[in-house]
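Exercise 4. Each item below gives a protein and its sequence. For each, produce the structure-token representation.

Item: Geranyl-CoA carboxylase alpha subunit (Maricaulis salignorans).
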Amino acid sequence: MTASPFRSILIANRGEIACRIIATARRLGYRTIAVHSPVDSCSPHVRLADDAVLLGPDAAAQSYLSIERLIEAAMSSGAEAIHPGYGFLSENADFARACLEAGLVFIGPSPEAIAVMGDKAVAKRRMVAAGVPCLPGYQDSDQSDEAFLAASSSIGYPIMIKAAAGGGGRGMRRVENEAELIAALPLARSEAQQAFGASDLILERALDQPRHVEIQIFCDSQGHAIHLGERDCSVQRRHQKVLEESPCPAMTDALRAKMGAAAVLAAQSVDYVGAGTVEYMLEADGRFHFLEMNTRLQVEHPVTEMVTGLDLVELQLRVASGAPLGLTQKDIRLAGHAIEARLYAEDPAQGFLPCSGDIERWIAPAGEGIRVDAGIESGSAVSPHYDPMIAKIIAWGPSRAIACQRLEGALQATGIAGLQTNRDFLLAAVREPAFQSGEATTAFIGEMLPGGEFKPAGLPGGVLAAAGVLQLRQAARDALQTANALPAALLGWHSAGRLTSSFAYRIEGMDLPVTASAVSLGRDAYRVQLADNFHLVEIITESPGQARLMIDGKRQRARFEHLDRARIFLMIGDHAVTLGNQVGAPQARGETAASGQVAAPMHGLLVEICIATGDRVAKGERIAILEAMKMQHEIRADLDGTIREIGQASGSQVKSGQLLFVIEPDTTKQDDAP
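Answer:
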């Protein structure tokens, strides 16, 4: 790599991508500067950087999305370049322009290229002119309902409505006929305006079961352009990627060459420089259609790195310094297979509702072919202000089958105590026959969850029994420390025989009694009773945080941590769970009937109130929209009644559990009863 015109880089981002960029930049000798909000002041990316600058309040609009504050941070810290990462301002042409005007190197494409590709309508018109295959659609400036109706008749239903100015599923709707189109247009415009500040829409012919396949491209300022193969990102939920892999299971050498050439052509048509991704819809017959171009590093870039052996951040820094890529298309070879799973702080059992809170314990997997990109650690806080993705688990193997097997094992070895994650859902998705066979399309999750809900498997009795035994043994060790010359073998025994310890674990709102006692003096075996069932648990070996167990005659490995005297975090097989002994603890409340007291389900911004005081509402009716972790969530009435109180105004920041509405129950049915 030739001498660079910059030696210090400010990373205008946070979390795992900031950590990942800092790692490569420091390896290459660059000085790194992190930026952060108050809630991120102790985050790993701040500690890893050489310097750090406080941007402003926690709200992204006043910190990570503030162009003015980021430029001030760069100038005050002596940064000579800015890397935007992904998300936030990474595809904002005004930010790229502001960097250049301040004399800073923007590690990305030109503002002009970002602007063209950031507008779906403009981008698609440019791609049609360049000869890049595109779906039939409508992307003209006339945004009237009449123009959309006429275009839809020509395109043919079903139709996809999309926000012209953004992505991520915001403003996106599928319509099957003219009546649905008329109803969906105002909603799509409203979502687009709220999310991107522009209400313009485009239309595309909808495909039923395509693959979502993207091509990684790289261009330098000397005119060299190559592609680095493809990634299959078909496994998506609400148009958000969940599993990504390289290469695509359906790819052939001829098709890869054809799609790669089209991607390079797309980039060259806008004089692109840097890393970019051209996304396509790929049909079963091999036809592919331009979807959009992401003018930044992608979340899923690690799978490309693992099959090519290249460091994409290093290539970004090389190109941004003005040096040639130093690679030709013939130099690119794909070896093996890599799959990435995105770990989100969300509760799949509650409609994938994003979660925030403290991570009490983070256990990252390790092993051959395993890579973990994370911006968290034990003690980290997951804030409601930012995206709920907290880590990426990536597995490589010489074949796709081995990569799948390694990813499954890595997910089993992944643990977070303190908040819910989608780990169990990821495990279930990776094990689905359609994914195992490489046949997953964009319809995969809809077919896997036909009702839209994921129900995790219940906890086996053996897991609960093991938890009870491990807690019993820890209590015995604690007692031994305070005992006066008592042999360890006699703990749990008295002159009449063995002592029985009682626990209670809260499972699905109910307290389950657990009793455990040693089987015989001097042997690490225990008899455990759960309700009317009995289990035998024997400790084969135990060391801090790990144990080999025999549970009902079956050998099991366990990882665990005693979070405090009452709670244990335990991982056995597919199960990772925090269990708290309820004996002596304050009585937890079970599920209560609908009360009409409607509280915020999480921290967030109350972006819309759909009702007024005095309005009659029906149970399940939408009464407000809360925005949290880059997503919008509907708040619905929990019973039939009349709105008597509205506790917060539209535009307010609210806290989890904060009272928003009071609904007076509808008693008409009771009054009319005979």
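Check: The radius of gyration is 28 Å.
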